[in-house]
Amino acid sequence: MIEGTVSDDGVPAIDVEVAGESWRAIIDTGFNGELELPERLREHSNARLVGRVTSVLAANQRVEEDVYLVDFPFDGTTVRVQATFVDGDEILMGTRLLRSHCLRINFPAKTVIIERA
């Protein structure tokens, strides 16, 4: 089981350890991909370019970006998932990464629980 919190401004997140550092990983239920990682984690994730993807953002904004196969520590194991890289300091976790898990977000209690289904 993974436990996290909901920030005062309503953002659910967990902490993950990548490259010996603790990172905030925001759980984005509107993102149906797997991961968006900070650029500085590229060298620590065994990133292998697999192609390009077009993503549809809010207001039907489309962006095309490179997508990589990466090794990512999640729920006690290392998983191989698709990720994009962006400037920034937060990890964005999409719903495809959670497809084998049950996600519970309790906004009044400000808790997040992720369990294998």
Molecular structure report:
With 117 residues, this protein is mainly beta. The chain has a domain at 19-99: Acid Proteases (Cathepsin D, subunit A, domain 1, Beta Barrel), CATH 2.40.70.10. 0% of the residues lie in helices and 60% in strands. It is built from no helices and ten strands. The protein has strands spanning 2-6, 12-18, 21-27, 35-38, 48-56, 62-74, 77-86, 91-93, 101-106, 111-116. A ten-stranded mixed sheet has the order 5-6-7-4-8-3-2-1-10-9, with no helix packed on it. A hairpin with a 4-residue loop joins strand 9 (101-106) and strand 10. The chain is globular, with a radius of gyration of 14 Å. The termini are close together. The mean pLDDT is 93.
Keywords:
Cathepsin D, subunit A, domain 1, single chain
In short:
The chain is mostly beta strands.
Counted beta strands? 10
SSE topology string: EEEEEEEEEE
Strand order in the largest sheet: 5-6-7-4-8-3-2-1-10-9
Oligomer: single chain
CATH architecture of one domain: Beta Barrel
Task: Walk me through the topology.
Layout: E1 2-6, E2 12-18, E3 21-27, E4 35-38, E5 48-56, E6 62-74, E7 77-86, E8 91-93, E9 101-106, E10 111-116
Parallel strand pairs: 3-8, 4-7
Antiparallel strand pairs: 1-2, 1-10, 2-3, 4-8, 5-6, 6-7, 9-10
